[in-house]
Design brief:
Elements: E1 16-19, E2 22-26, E3 35-39, E4 48-50, E5 58-59, H1 75-85, H2 110-117, E6 122-125, H3 133-147, E7 153-157, H4 159-173, E8 178-180, H5 185-191, E9 204-208, H6 209-212, H7 215-224, E10 228-232, H8 247-261, E11 267-271, H9 280-288, H10 302-309, E12 312-313, H11 317-320, E13 333-341, H12 345-363, H13 368-387, H14 389-396, H15 408-418, H16 452-467, H17 475-489, E14 494-497, H18 501-515, E15 525-529, H19 535-546, E16 559-563, E17 579-582, H20 589-596, E18 608-616, H21 620-640, H22 650-664, H23 679-701, H24 713-727, H25 730-743, E19 749-750, E20 756-758, H26 765-775, E21 783-786, E22 796-797, H27 803-817, E23 831-836, E24 843-857, E25 863-877, E26 884-885, H28 888-893, E27 899-901, H29 905-948, E28 957-960, E29 965-974
Length: 984
Amino acid sequence: MTTAVPPAPKYAVGSLVHARGREWVVLPDSTEDLLVLRPLGGADVDIAGVLPGLETVVPATFAPPTPSDLGDQHTAGLLRTALRIGFRAGAGPFRSLASIAVDPRPYQLVPLMMALRQDTVRLLIADDVGIGKTVESGLIAAELLAQGDARGLVVLCSPALAEQWRAELHGKFGIDARLVLPATIGRLERETPYGQSVFRQDGAYVVSTDFIKSPRHREDFLRNCPDLVIVDEAHTCVADSTARASARTSQQRYGLLRALADDTARHLLLVTATPHSGKEEPFRRLLGLLDPRLATVSFDTRAGRELLAEFFVQRRRADIREDFQDGAHFPSTRDSAEVSYALHRDYRRLLGEVLTYARETVRSADGALQQRQRWWSTLALLRTLSSSPAAAVRSLNTRAGVQEADTPDEVDRTGQSTVSDPADSDSAQSADEVPGSLLPSAAPGGDDEIGEAEKARLVAMAEAAKKLAGPTRDAKLKKLVATVTDLLDAGYRPIVFCRYIATSDYVADHLAKVFNKKGTEHPVAVASVTGELSPDMRLNRIAELTAPDENGDPAPERRVLVATDCLSEGVNLQESFDAVVHYDLAWNPTRHEQREGRVDRFGQRTDTVKALTLCGADNPVDGIVLKVLLRKHEHIRRATGISVPVPQQAESAMQAVFEELILHGETPAFEQEGLFERAEAHTAAEQLEIAWESSAEREKASRSRYAQNTIKKEEVAAEVAEIRAALGTGEEVREFTRRALGALRGVPADRKQGGFTAHTDALPQGLRDAVTAALGPRHPRPVVFHDAPSAPRGEAALTRTDPVVAATARFVLDTALDEKFPDWQRPARRCGVIRTSAVRRPTTMLLVRHRFQLNLPTRDGGVRTQLAEDARVVAFHGRPEAPQWLPEEEALALLVARATGNSDRGFATDHITQILAALDTGLMDELRVRSKAAAKELEASHHRVRTAAKARLAGLRAAPQGDPDVLGVFLYRPAATIQLGADA
């Protein structure tokens, strides 16, 4: 059997051709019948396919500079930096770095190094919240796609995070993914030809996991799924087989992933900050998706740890702190504190009545089923009353979900999922509804109706709760107002996290009233975001609070976001907020970590973020949660430097302690220290503490089993630094952007906070349109440029991959190569004669672009051809017919030489003409030699990285493609001590 191979192209990868009235460079994937071309100096969006059989295509050479196209002393630097910023086929061993809009930290390249080791990439990336799992997985995806090891990509995630994933892929990695959601599937199906799938194996998609697991779409997706899959919040796709009712959803998700993983050629990246919920079985099932052996192997053995190290990467904040010593925005500390308050006497009285009601109701139950139903309904009432009067009123008017259960075990599973915050819950996305507490009466014939006496009692409690609303009787709300005031006055922008929708709306409403009374000197913008809103509506609500208005005016600095845990996972808020207030205590410490991780993450510009926890000093419910869970978790985190998952015993311990409170406590003396005096509760809490300490010790001791410890960051740091230098250093990018925008009438002005601002209204039309496309039509004016690798929405970062910086570089390079533009729109020129005290004899500098044909070994044993580009500066003393070549560092020093005098234009043109003539007689021979040397350097760099990653080396080769392009010619002449006539 034979396989048809596309005929080889007439033009090699990297060669130049002329077609459609312009010059192009030939890209990989070209064949004899179809050339894939990119305009010389153009971007990936300009790539086109040309059919040589139908269009005229002829070989081309790069046009030399025009001798009369003279610039000043800044011309060479602008041209060189514009060229390097514009590279999208960089020569370094990480092929994707030249085409992505993110500047990865060294630690973020470690998962990529691990991926390069594997024939089929299978990784569980379990780094802490906020240190860049999305970037790490995106880097792997971009690199696999750039190298051709993957054809397409799909991200499986919650629908609430789908738009954010799409934006991240597009904005940072240049991947245009289609959203596949219930709201988009109809349109996608209408756009798809009849009989074909919405999915293509070479496409890019962001897909709702719960939507695609449905029987209607599952099989079509599995048949046409791309060969690279990223699963976000992967822990929600596995569950303990004995778990509660929501396990059915997890099992369906797991079944989908299991089917995807069964294709041994498919790349699979699992992403989660909480891979281990404290239960071993779900963790093992997650690992088993990567390699079946991981489901059963013992990690106590060396062989087991080494096997895990191939697939698992997990870093804590302490592991990567050193990577942020260069001014990158990552908080140095998290200032955490408890803020206590004492209940108002009326609130204490109602809480006492609820406890009495709970005790009587549970004790009088008829049988185990009814007892468990009453237990969970009263616990729901206690928790909602501890949250807010609004939540309590809602609970007292809502039927309890546990009443539908048929067995005590089913009641417990339902109660845990609706009242508690179990460690292995699916997600916080839709768990903010108030749990009901109404149950049918136990009286004969009362199956459907609550008894009159009990109904009157519940109505009275609901009326009492209504009267507690407001800061007068709600001491918790009053304390929040004071806490938020202090934060705002200190310059912080807080997020207030609540457990329930009713509480979030209640809190937001009162904060808005308090902070925006008539005549207030400094009003505060307040918004509430809850699971009641669709994912798109949540993002819109946040944008209304944080984005510039329709007139381009900036968002108010004094702002407060009130939210439920629908925002505690996945949504990045570090650009707009820098403090978290836990208004309601989560019954799972991991939820607190997730909340705080919304602001304590990479890109946060505030050095110290705040995390404050409100707690009732005399509220027994808060006391239990603090003592049994939260304080213990914080103690272990500070002692070990890591967050250890809550052990499996936590649920039973909490149950035991709450039973002591409800069934045996004396009312209303809640402040007693006797909550843990009874043997059963004491034993359960003690066993939890022992198990937690043991888990912490095991976790600390097992750090050596993680894969990042088998890769030293210094192995890639040198390569990363070399790639960054070749593509433009941070200082070069800053100086280039400021100088270029100044020349193009952007009027840059320094900022006290660092960076600068620039106006866009007077920029050339083409550049102005590009800036608007990058920042949006309502971006703030003037545009703020930050001396940082990240920037808030609507502003720019001074990095080569920032879309505004890239657009500026592309415009500068395009106008330098096209003399038809007006002079003021051409800040860079290709020639110059400069008098300077930096040289003592005539010195010529050439700006040269090399193109290489790079052969990379593939995972299947073959070789794939790629295009690579590099820019070099070379220089020589003396006449061009007898050059004396200088070391590279001396050539680069010429870029910062300051002009001390002018040169006669005719004199300068004549000298440039002589130099250009020498290109054909001798200079090009030396440039060819240097091109070969650069190819060997490139090949060696790839060899070092592949050796460090233990990747294939057979077939690796780099070779020059065609003659180097001479983009610029600049003659530096010694400063004249006495000038006679015209440059005598």
